Amino acid sequence: MPRIAYFGPQGTFTEQAARVLAAAEDELLPVETIGAALSAVRDGECDAACVPVENSVEGPVSATLDGLAERAPLVATAEALLPVHFSVLTREDVGTVRTVASHPHALAQVREWIERNLPEARTVVSSSTAAAAVAVQRGEYDAAVTAPVAVEHYPLRVLATEVADVADARTRFLLLRPPGRLPEPTGADRTSIVAAAANRTGALAELLAELATRGINLTRLDARPIKGNFGLYRFFIDFEGHVAETRIGDALAALRRRCNNVRFLGSHPRADGVEATIDPGAANQDFDEAFDWVAAVRAGSSA
Ligand SMILES: O=C(O)C(=O)Cc1ccccc1
């Protein structure tokens, strides 16, 4: 039975995402950290890992980005996009709430609600939203900001539901596997890479220009420090399209030439189904025809 490690414990948002991404026969295994989920795949204990990668309020999930840039390569084969609103859970015996625990991304999304509704509470960071619920059960903190499903696993009092400072907040999750067969292109795909640009004037601009001149639309750009090299950064770039397409393959080949290091992190269908924008002259057919023409010129059969 295929096994999927997810960022747990039970009752996290990531578990909800894993349920969306898993096949009926897959076994879901909660692990304590994002790093442990990635290691479970690298060590062969699990076939895939489900982890959060970006949030529309807080931005990138750095543990996931750093975990993908280092150690053995993993490739995203699918993504899920979940709306994120929170429940606030307490023990039955809690009077005034003085401590509220949760994952930093959750706390960042309910800061105003806590100020308004729990003015005496101090916030405490936990490894995940569900880990905060466990800590409340144990009596370590008074309240936890959790995913709506958490109350099914941790019998706590529901103080509030549908809590969110920003309406329509969403988190994107990835299903990661060892490199292997890629999903088929659909016309509404996302490709992800991480690249270490050379440390010289204009290097990042040149790298982005390779994508821009081929009419490739970016969907995300994040910089993360390369640890142990103060001042050096790697760039995580997501863009529309699939590596199986000529225009995307041509761009990746250019990045490979220009960068110190490029790692392919996957091509897979977008959860929102948004189709790639194609500029005039930048469709796959345009690339194919242009390459055919060059081949014909080289063969002496065209000019
Ligand atoms: O802690 C969780 O439940 C997670 O899955 C990470 C997370 C935290 C806050 C918003 C979305 C995902």
From TrEMBL:
Q: In which pathway does it act?
A: Amino-acid biosynthesis; L-phenylalanine biosynthesis; phenylpyruvate from prephenate: step 1/1
* Pfam families assigned to the protein according to its UniProt record, in alphabetical order: ACT (PF01842), PDT (PF00800)
- EC numbers, comma separated: 4.2.1.51
Q: Give the main EC class.
A: lyase
Q: Name one GO cellular component term.
A: cytoplasm
Recorded GO MF terms: prephenate dehydratase activity
GO biological process entries: L-phenylalanine biosynthetic process
Q: Which UniProt keywords apply?
A: Amino-acid biosynthesis, Aromatic amino acid biosynthesis, Lyase, Phenylalanine biosynthesis
Reaction(s) catalysed by this chain's protein:
prephenate + H(+) = 3-phenylpyruvate + CO2 + H2O
NCBIfam families annotated for this entry? PRK11898.1
Q: Which PANTHER family match?
A: PREPHENATE DEHYDRATASE P PROTEIN (PTHR21022), PREPHENATE DEHYDRATASE-RELATED (PTHR21022:SF19)
Entry protein name: Prephenate dehydratase
Species assigned in the record = Prauserella marina
